[in-house]
Design brief:
This protein has eight helices and twelve strands. With 291 residues, the chain is an alpha/beta fold.
């Protein structure tokens, strides 16, 4: 297999914990002196913040109460597929940023909730790194998953995902519990149809499972901590994974199936380092040979 311009994609919904994987990957990139082209999934939304509110209101008026950021029509999926394919072939493509807040927007002299202009991927990057909602999406018109060389899913069990989202939206965005519930219900059809199927296409999945009661996620006052969780790590193809080494390095871990290792939640980032470092170095070696 020759991979001249590797594409690595982390996929998971809002509040799933994809930032933990991204943080780990960035540590690996710095340590191994790898230069990534960073792509946020939000930058491939079709609408900026104000436009999205308008589009949602228009959809609601037409009887569609489920229009949301999970919906293919709310995203530039053909453009994202073109980026993955084009970068894989030539190391080139067009990217932009979505400016979430005042701090991100200030250097560009723009309002928060807007996009920066499209620009070319910087020269001399070693790989493309994507974090977002649609890194492994397949629809009738696009197949983004087939252009990624490493696909990682981040999938907490559903009640924990809702707790994480509710906590973030209430504490950081000032949303009410009712508003959070409305958002979850709005997204549910597209979560089932477009987000969940991606986790059957990923090479590795990380699913955090709390060991405390999360029966009613909408009354939870705290997110279960890492030490109150286990992480179920599933490999689509366990060939070449050194499970004895992982079991030795990750204290209190165990195998639940031939392709699944379960580790204490507090060891999740260490597990990611142990698992992803050789995978990334393998891609870099394939890149070197292809070049």
């Amino acid at each position: 297999m020759t991979v001249k311009h590797p594409v690595v994609a982390i996929t998971g919904s809002s509040g799933a914990g994809t930032s933990s994987v991204t943080r780990t990957m960035q540590h690996i990139f710095r340590r191994e002196e790898i230069v990534p082209a960073l792509v946020e999934g939000d930058s491939f939304h079709r609408y900026d913040r104000a436009e999205m509110k308008t589009a949602m209101a228009e959809a609601e008026a037409q009887g569609n109460s489920h229009f949301c950021h999970f919906t293919p029509e709310a995203n530039l999926l053909p453009e994202l597929e073109k980026l993955f394919r084009g970068y894989g072939e030539s190391g080139a493509g067009l990217i932009r940023k979505y400016l979430h807040n005042d701090e991100e927007a200030a250097p560009y002299g723009q309002e928060p909730g807007t996009f920066t202009p499209w620009e070319a991927v910087p020269d001399s990057t070693d790989l493309l790194f994507y974090e977002g909602l649609h890194g492994a999406v397949v629809t009738d018109t696009v197949d983004i998953a087939r252009h990624a060389d490493l696909l990682v899913g981040v999938v907490p069990i559903i009640n924990l995902e809702w707790i994480q989202k509710a906590y973030r939206d209430r504490s950081e965005r000032g949303y009410s519990t009712e508003a959070v519930m409305d958002t979850i219900l709005r997204r549910m059809p597209d979560y089932v149809n477009f987000v969940c199927p991606q986790f059957s296409r990923t090479h590795v999945n990380f699913q955090r499972v709390p060991t405390v009661d999360t029966s009613n996620p909408f009354i939870a006052r705290f997110i279960p901590s890492a030490d109150e969780s286990f992480v179920v790590i599933r490999f689509r193809d366990p060939t070449g994974i050194d499970f004895p080494y992982l079991l030795t390095m990750l204290h209190d871990s165990f195998m639940s199936r031939p392709n699944i290792i379960v580790v204490p939640g507090g060891k999740m980032e260490l597990a990611m380092q142990l698992i992803f470092t050789p995978m990334i170095l393998r891609l870099m070696e394939q890149r070197r040979r292809a070049g």
